[in-house]
Amino acid sequence: MSISITAEETVFPLAEIFTISRGSRTEARVVTATISDGRHTGRGECVPYARYGETVESVIAQIEGCGAADRITLQDMLPAGAARNAVDCAFWDLEAKRAGKRVWELAKLLRPAPAITAYTLSLETPEQMRKQAAKHAHRPLLKIKLGGEGDMARLEAVREGAPNTAIIIDANEGWSAEEYADLAPALLRLGVKMVEQPLPAGADDMLAEIERPLPVCADEAAHDRVSLPALSGKYDMVNIKLDKTGGLTEAIALEREARTAGYAIMVGCMVGSSLAMAPATLLTGGAAFTDLDGPLLLAKDRKHPLTFDQAGVHPPAAELWG
Questions:
Q1: pLDDT tens digit sequence for 180-225
Q2: How far apart are CA 244 and CA 81, in angstroms?
Q3: Which of 97, 143, 234, 241 is catalytic?
C-alpha cells in the first residue's frame, strides 16, 4: 500500500519569553509530519534545533525527500535528529491506527502511567526567578535554567521562592569545569537533586577527573546509542529526547542500552506541543526524572492535549497520538 509523507511548519506562541544560556524565544516553531496510506493518517512533531544545525526549512526538506516506505527503512534513510523523529513518530501513529491498538501495545511496552514532570523556569534575573519560583512553588519538581554570570544568586533566589520544592538544574553547557567545581558544594547545600550538562559537549572530559557530588546528566552529549561509549566515567544519567534520538524507535533502544550500561534515565523534551510530548510519555516508567513540560509553556496547544494534574503528565488520548 503506497503512502504519502508531508511536512509543514506549525507555530505555537509561548505563554512567556523563554530564555536559556544560548538565547531567548517567544514562540515554538515546530514541524508536523503527516503520513497517509489513503485510509489512515499518522502524525508526528519535531522541534528543529539550531544547536544541532537544524532549521525548520532543512527539516522539512529532509522529511519530504526521505521516501521511506515504513518505519524500519526510515532508520537508515535519515540520521538521528528532528526530521527522523517526526516521521518515526508519525509511522508509529499510523501503525497504531491500522492495527486498532495503542503504540505501547505494538512496542511491547508497559502501559504508561502518569509521571511527575519538572516545570522549567527560564534564565532570568534572580528577582524574576524568585517570583517565578514562588508562583510555581506548589509543583513537586522545578527545573532551573542556569549557565551565566550570577548563577549562585539565581539559585539562592529560587530556593527562597520555593523552599520545599525539589530542584534540578540545566546549565545548557554554560559552565567551565572550575565553575562547576566551585558551585557544586552550594548545589548540595540548597538541595539540588541533579545537574544537567554543566560543561560543553565535546569539552567535558574533566567530568571524569573532578568529584561529582551529585548526579550529572548528559543532554547535549547524549543523542543515540552511538553516543553512549563517550559518556563513560563522566556522567551518571542520560537525558533521552526524541528530537536527539531521531524518534521513539531509537529512544526505546537507547533506554534499554543505557540502563544496561548503568545509567539512570531522564526523559526530556524541547519546547513543543502535546503531540511532541506524547510518544515520550511511553518512556517515563522507572525514569529518575521526567521533563515533559513543553505544553505547559505554550499559550495554545493542540486539540486533545495531554492532561497535566497533581499526578503528573498522563499518556495521550488516541485522538492526539498513538
A1: 888 889 999 999 999 999 999 999 999 999 888 899 999 999 999 9
A2: 5
A3: 241
What pTM did the predictor assign? Answer: 0.95
Active site residue 135: no
The mean pLDDT value for 256-283 works out to 98
Residue 254 dihedral angles phi and psi, to the nearest 5°: -65, -45
Kindly name the residue from 97, 145, 234, 244 that is annotated as catalytic.
Answer: 145
Q: Give the model confidence (pLDDT) of 231-269 as tens digits.
A: 999 999 999 999 999 999 999 999 999 999 999 999 999
Partners of 308 in the β-ladder: 313
Q: What angle do CA 146, 286, 203 make, to 5 degrees?
A: 35
Known catalytic residue: 241?
yes
Contact 123, 20 (CB under 8 A): yes
Choose among 118, 174, 120: nearest CA to 146. 174
Summary mean pLDDT of the chain = 95
